[in-house]
Design brief:
Belongs to the ABC transporter superfamily. It is a single chain. The strands form two sheets. Strands 5-6-7-3-8-9 form a six-stranded mixed beta sheet, sandwiched between helices. Strands 2-1-4 form a three-stranded antiparallel beta sheet, covered by helices on one side. It has a domain of about 70 residues. The protein has eight helices and nine strands. By secondary structure, the chain is an alpha/beta fold.
């Protein structure tokens, strides 16, 4: 379970998040949707302990991420595919991750197979990977511990159509097995294909949340989203 409760964040006098509240339950893919700069990444950084909220709380299993015992074994995260060490191979990257959370090395091979990085690809240095390959490796790293909660920031960046379809099937399967999935993106169409619920954010504020049917109300979801974000922009202009 993920829960944001009245989370606000101010950077140098600028309010990046404004009273953000929503929850993600087990067995659910929740799409966290908003334009670039809306506050999505800030919210996920607060959730995973990489930034501190000015007020409010963001918790996993009812506790702050930093308070969890061995959080990497329960919470899988993909926040920045560019943060991978370019001089390590994909296999070495996952091996180090497995060692840090106390997993056997056999798990590395399982994950490489799962994300489609095998043979020569697994043994190439990450600096020579395409963006899509780095995304797959980061997803693999997030899945090492067979997490109960998965937090992904723009996971389809750089993936080709086959890779995007693979991601949809993967996330749906994880949710169906009971995992709580929080999926951040600015790509409405991709979120709509896989999400059970949507949380729309703009200018750091929650604009709407609910199922696709609840939010569209007979209109296209794109029209609803554009209207909400336009209203958010006008309210601060």
């Amino acid at each position: 379970m993920i829960e944001f409760s009245h989370v606000s964040k101010t950077y140098r006098g600028v309010r990046a998040l404004d009273d953000v509240s929503f929850a993600v339950g087990p067995g659910c893919v929740t799409g966290f949707l908003g334009p670039n700069g809306a506050g999505k990444s800030t919210a996920l950084r607060i959730l995973t302990g990489l930034a501190r909220a000015t007020s409010g709380s963001a918790t996993v299993f009812g506790r702050a991420y930093a308070e969890l015992a061995n959080p990497g074994a329960r919470v899988g995260t993909l926040l920045d595919a560019g943060a991978l060490h370019p001089g390590r191979t994909g296999r070495e990257t996952l091996t180090l991750g497995a060692m840090m959370i106390g997993l056997p090395r056999t798990r590395v091979g399982e994950v490489l197979d799962l994300v489609g990085l095998t043979g020569r690809e697994a043994d190439r240095v990450v600096g020579g990977y395409s963006l899509g390959m780095r995304q797959r490796l980061c997803v693999g790293h997030a899945l090492l511990g067979r997490p109960e909660v998965l937090v992904l920031d723009e996971p389809v960046n750089g993936l080709d159509p086959q890779g995007i379809h693979w991601m949809r099937v993967l996330l749906r399967g994880l949710a169906d097995s009971g995992c709580s999935v929080l999926l951040s993106s600015h790509l409405l169409h991709e979120i709509e294909q896989v999400a059970d619920r949507l949380v729309m954010i703009g200018r750091g504020r929650i604009l709407a949340q609910g199922t696709v049917a609840e939010l569209s109300r007979g209109r296209s979801l794109e029209e609803t989203f554009l209207d909400l974000t336009a209203n958010a922009d006008r309210s601060v202009s």
